[in-house]
Design a protein that fits this description.
The complex is a heterodimer of chains A (714) and B (100). Chain A is 31% helix and 18% strand. Chain A has 714 residues and is an alpha/beta fold. In chain A, strands 5-4-19-18-17-6-7 form a 7-stranded mixed sheet, with helices on one face. In chain A, a hairpin with an 8-residue loop joins strand 1 and strand 2. The relative contact order of chain B is 0.19. In chain B, helix 1 packs across helix 3 and helix 2 crosses helix 4. Chain B is globular. Chain B has 100 residues and is an all-alpha fold. Classes of the chains: A alpha/beta (714), B mainly alpha (100). Chains A and B meet through helix 4, helix 9, helix 16 and helix 18 of A and helix 1, helix 2 and helix 3 of B.
C-alpha cells in the first residue's frame, strides 16, 4: 500500500485479532483508517506488532460490509433491506412468539470473542434477564472451555497464571499443542527471544512447528506424539516425576491438598503409564518422555504454554488437568518465570470466559445454581433469574434437531463455518424459526438467518478486551460505526424491544456494572484504564492496579490449596481403520486469522490464498500423490478437496490443514465427538483417507467475493 | 450418531430434548472420567457434574431413560444420576469431584 499522506488524527486502541491484545495507534485520514502503528506503551506488546494487526485492517471498509439491517420470512427468500426499528421489532416479536409457543427455554444467544467485554456481558444479560433462561454460550465453547474447567478444578481459576513478560525468567519452556509464532506472533517472538537467551524448549505437538526448528531457535526436545494421545503422554511425564521423585514435596505439602496428591501419584505412578508402555502407543521414544519430565521438573523455573492442541479433544478438560497437576507437583506456580498459560486464539476469549457468556456461570465464574450469587444479579437487574443451567452451543443445535430449540441470537459468530460436523449444524439451523445474526458480513451462517443486524468492527466502538494474560485493554472508537451503531447499542435496542428497560449512556457504564457484579473486575473502570493504560485482573482494593502473577500466596479455592485430579487416559472413539487410515489435525498460519472472515478481505490473502493439506512424503508416495496435486479428503462425516503439499512437518500417518477459507470446508470432515466435560469439539483428531483427484475448476465468480478491499488511497 | 435424522416440522417435538444416543454417549464419557475415583466420590462426581452443567431437560431425559431400563448406560451413570433425586444432596454447584 502506498504510504498515505500525513494522518490527520490518531487513537490508541487494541488489536482485535489474537489473544496477545497488542496496543496500536490507529491513524486516520479523512475519516478512514490508513495505518496501524504498534504502540510503544502497550504493556502486552511493547511496541511490536504482527502482519495481521499491522496490515489486515482494511476489511472494515470492504465492499462486502453490510450497512443496512435486513429481514426475511424464510431462508429461501431474498433479503429485504429495512430500517433498524423494523429489524429489531421483527426479531423481538419473533423471539417472543417462539417463547409463547414453545416455552421460555426454546431460544438462546451466542456471543463472540471478537466483541468487547461490555458487549459479551450484555448478551449474557439479554439471555438471562430478558429471554429469562440461561441458554447463553460463546465461542470459547469450541476452543478454550476445557481450560476453564480443567484449571478451575486444579488451581482454582481458568486463566493464565502469568503475565507475558514472565517468560523472560523461565529456564524451561514447555509448549503443548500451540504454535505461538503463527497464532500469537508477538508473544511468539518474546518466547523466541528467551530461547535465544538459553532457555530450554520442549515442544509436544504432532507437527514440527516453527518453534521446533527455525533460525536461532531449536527445541531441546520435540515429542511428535500421535494426535489423541495427549493425556497418555502427560500422565507418562508425571509418571517419571513420581517414580523418580522429581516432585517438589515441600511445595505440595505447604500449598496443595496432600492426600489428593497421593491419590494422583498412585494413579500416574502405576506401571500402565510407564514411558515404555506409553511411548509406543503415542509414537514416541520412551527416553524422550523421561528427558522431558526431568527437564521440566528440574527447572528451576519451568513454564507451560498450551493451546487448542490440548483442549480440542474428547479428553480436552482432562488434558488441561494434567498440566495443572504437573505444575502443582513440581511447584511451578506462584512466582515469575513459571506457571500454566493458555494461549488464547481470539482477542477477547479470556473476556468471553470471564463475563458470564456460559450457560452455567455468571460473570466471574460463579454458578447460576448458587442462590447467593444469583440474588446479587437479581437485585441489580430487577428481575427473577432462571436457577438452572442452560444449553451449551452444541446442545442448542442438538435441541434444534428435536424441535425443542427454535430461535437464536448470534453476535459476531459463524457457527456454520466454525463448528464441527457442518451437516449436523446446517440441519439444526434449518430447523430454527428465527435466527438473528449480528455481524459485519453475510457469513456462512447468514444463509440460514432470518434477521441480519449489521454490526461494528472493533475500530468503531468503545469498550475493553481481556487478553491471554488477563490484561484488560481499552478498545477505542477510531471511526464512526459504518452501519450506525456500536454492537452493544444494538443489544440494548433488542433488550428494549423485548420489554426490558436497559439504558446506558456509554460503554463505560457497562464496565461499571461488570465491576459491581464481578469480584475479579471490581476495580476496573474507564478512568482507571485511562490513567494506567491497562490492568490485569484480579483488580480490587487489595490490588488497585491489577495483578501480574496469580497464586503467589494461595490458590483461589475454598481452602486456598491447589488440588490434583485423577486423569485416566481414555482413548477417543474417533480412530483410524482400513477405510480411514490417516489422522487429520488442524492449525493456523501467520497471515490469516481463524475462519478468515476478516483477513480474507485484506491483502493478507496474497500470502495464503488457499488452505492446503500437508502430507508426509511416505503417505503421499503410497497414494501416488505428488506435490501440488488436488486430493479428496474423506472422513466418516463428509468429504472436501484441497491441494496437497508434501511436508516434512508431519509424520507418516498424520495430515494437517488450516481452516482459513470457507471453500475448504474443513469442518465438513470433523466429527461430533467432544470433550467429556464441556462438549468442546474434537477438532484435532479426525480419521480420514486421502485420494488423488483431478484438478478442481476454480469458481471465479464465487472467489471475487473474497478479493481484498481496494486500497484506501489508490 | 445418525446423520440422516429426519427434520422435525413445526409443532412436532420428540420427547427428549436431545437425541437419546447422544445423551447416553455424553453421560458415559462423564463416567469414564470419574472411573478412577472410589465408588462414593465417583457417583457424587457424576451427580454434581450433571447438576451443574446439564440443562434440566437433559437431566430429565436421562432419568426417564433410566426409568425405562437405561439401555447403553454405564452403571456408574445410573448410580450418579439417581443421586439427583435425593433432595438432601441439593447444594451449591461446584467444579469436579467432591473435595476430600
Amino acid at each position: 500500500m502506498a504510504n498515505p499522506v500525513k494522518p490527520e488524527s490518531n487513537v490508541v486502541t487494541t488489536c482485535a485479532y489474537c489473544g496477545v491484545g497488542c496496543g496500536f495507534k490507529a491513524e486516520t485520514y479523512k475519516g478512514r483508517v490508513v495505518r496501524m502503528i504498534p504502540w510503544k506503551e502497550g504493556k502486552a506488546n511493547h511496541g511490536h506488532g504482527c502482519v495481521k494487526g499491522r496490515f489486515a485492517f482494511d476489511y472494515y471498509n470492504h465492499p462486502d460490509r453490510v450497512r443496512t439491517p435486513m429481514i426475511r420470512r424464510s431462508i429461501d427468500e431474498p433479503w429485504q433491506a429495512v430500517s433498524w426499528e423494523t429489524a429489531i421489532q421483527h426479531a423481538a416479536s419473533e423471539f417472543r412468539r417462539i417463547q409463547n409457543q414453545y416455552g421460555k427455554r426454546s431460544i438462546g444467544a451466542v456471543s463472540s470473542s471478537r466483541c468487547t467485554n461490555e458487549e459479551i456481558f450484555l448478551v449474557q444479560k439479554l439471555a438471562r434477564a430478558v429471554m429469562g433462561n440461561n441458554n447463553i454460550d460463546n465461542c470459547a465453547r469450541i476452543c478454550h472451555s476445557p481450560t476453564q474447567f480443567g484449571l478451575s478444578a486444579t488451581v482454582g481459576w481458568g486463566a493464565a497464571s502469568q503475565h507475558f513478560d514472565s517468560i523472560l525468567k523461565a529456564d524451561v519452556i514447555l509448549v503443548v499443542g500451540v504454535n505461538p509464532t503463527e497464532g500469537h506472533p508477538v508473544f511468539g517472538s518474546l518466547m523466541k527471544r528467551r530461547i535465544r537467551e538459553g532457555a530450554k524448549l520442549i515442544v509436544i505437538d504432532p507437527r514440527r512447528t516453527e518453534l521446533v526448528a527455525s533460525p536461532h531457535c531449536r527445541a531441546t526436545l520435540h515429542l511428535a506424539l500421535r494426535p489423541g494421545t495427549n493425556v497418555a503422554v502427560l500422565d507418562s511425564i508425571s509418571h517419571v516425576v513420581v517414580r523418580e521423585k522429581l516432585y517438589n514435596e515441600a511445595f505440595v505439602r505447604e500449598r496443595c491438598e496432600w492426600p489428593e496428591f497421593e491419590n494422583w501419584a498412585a494413579l500416574v505412578g502405576d506401571d500402565r503409564y510407564s514411558p515404555d508402555v506409553i511411548g509406543p502407543l503415542a509414537g514416541l521414544d520412551p527416553e524422550d518422555i523421561r528427558r522431558a519430565a526431568r527437564l521440566y521438573a528440574g527447572g528451576p523455573n519451568s513454564a507451560i504454554y498450551y493451546g487448542l492442541g490440548v483442549t480440542e479433544h474428547s479428553q480436552g478438560s482432562t488434558g488441561v488437568m494434567c498440566l495443572g497437576n504437573l505444575s502443582l507437583a513440581c511447584g511451578m506456580l506462584g512466582r515469575e518465570g513459571v506457571g500454566v498459560n493458555p494461549m488464547r486464539g481470539q482477542g477477547n476469549v479470556q473476556g468471553g470466559s470471564c463475563l458470564g457468556s456460559w450457560p452455567h456461570v455468571f460473570s466471574g465464574y460463579r454458578f447460576v445454581t448458587d442462590p447467593e450469587v444469583r440474588g446479587s444479579f437479581e437485585r441489580d437487574w430487577g428481575v427473577a433469574l432462571d436457577d438452572e443451567p442452560g444449553l451449551r452451543l452444541p446442545n442448542m443445535f442438538d435441541a434444534a434437531l428435536t424441535g425443542h430449540f427454535r430461535g437464536m441470537y448470534i453476535m459476531g459468530e459463524d457457527p456454520v463455518q466454525s463448528d464441527p460436523n457442518q451437516k449436523h449444524v446446517i440441519a439444526a439451523m434449518r430447523n430454527m424459526e428465527c435466527v438473528v445474526l449480528q455481524d459485519l458480513f453475510l457469513n456462512e451462517t447468514a444463509k440460514y438467518a432470518h434477521v441480519f443486524l449489521p454490526g461494528s468492527s472493533s475500530l468503531e466502538k468503545e469498550g475493553t478486551f481481556t487478553n491471554a494474560e488477563r490484561r484488560v485493554n481499552r478498545v477505542r472508537k477510531v471511526i464512526e460505526p459504518l452501519a450506525g451503531y456500536q454492537d452493544w447499542e444494538i443489544v440494548v435496542m433488542l433488550m428494549n424491544a423485548m420489554g426490558y428497560p436497559a439504558k446506558y449512556g456509554h460503554a463505560g457504564e457497562i464496565l461499571d456494572e461488570i465491576a459491581r457484579l464481578s469480584p475479579a473486575y471490581k476495580g476496573m473502570s474507564f478512568p482507571l484504564l485511562e490513567r494506567i493504560g491497562s490492568a490485569q485482573w484480579p483488580c480490587d482494593e487489595n490490588a488497585p492496579e491489577g495483578t501480574e502473577v496469580l497464586h503467589t500466596v494461595k490458590f483461589p479455592r475454598a481452602n486456598g490449596r491447589g488440588t490434583f485430579m485423577l486423569t485416566e487416559y481414555v482413548p477417543t472413539t474417533e480412530r483410524t481403520n482400513d477405510q480411514f487410515p490417516l489422522l487429520l489435525t488442524t492449525g493456523r498460519i501467520l497471515s490469516q486469522y481463524n475462519v478468515g472472515t476478516q483477513t480474507r478481505r485484506t491483502a493478507n490473502s496474497l500470502w495464503h490464498p488457499e488452505d492446503v493439506l500437508e502430507i508426509s512424503a511416505e503417505d503421499a508416495a503410497a497414494r501416488g500423490i505428488q506435490d501440488g496435486d488436488w486430493v479428496s479428503i474423506t472422513s466418516r462425516f463428509g468429504a472436501t478437496r484441497l491441494r496437497a503439499i508434501l511436508s516434512a512437518r508431519v509424520n507418516p500417518g498424520v495430515v494437517y490443514t488450516t481452516f482459513h477459507h470457507a471453500k475448504s470446508k474443513a469442518n465438513v470432515l470433523t466429527s461430533d465427538q467432544s470433550d467429556w466435560a464441556t462438549n468442546c469439539p474434537e477438532y484435532k483428531v479426525t480419521a480420514v483417507e486421502v485420494v488423488r483427484v483431478q484438478p478442481v475448476v476454480e469458481n471465479m465468480a464465487a472467489d471475487t467475493a473474497e478479493q481484498p478491499a481496494e486500497e484506501a488511497f489508490a | 450418531m445418525n446423520l440422516q435424522q429426519p427434520q422435525h416440522r413445526e409443532g412436532d417435538r420428540s420427547e427428549a430434548v436431545i437425541d437419546l444416543d447422544r445423551l447416553v454417549l455424553m453421560a458415559n464419557q462423564i463416567a469414564d472420567f470419574f472411573a478412577p475415583y472410589p465408588p462414593l466420590r465417583r457417583h457424587e462426581g457424576i451427580r454434581n457434574h450433571l447438576r451443574t452443567y446439564w440443562d434440566p431437560r437433559m437431566r430429565k431425559a436421562l432419568l426417564d431413560h433410566i426409568d425405562h431400563g437405561g439401555e447403553g448406560l454405564n452403571a456408574d451413570v445410573v448410580a450418579g444420576a439417581n443421586l439427583l433425586k435425593q433432595a438432601d444432596t441439593e447444594q451449591k454447584g461446584y467444579y469436579g469431584p467432591p473435595k476430600a
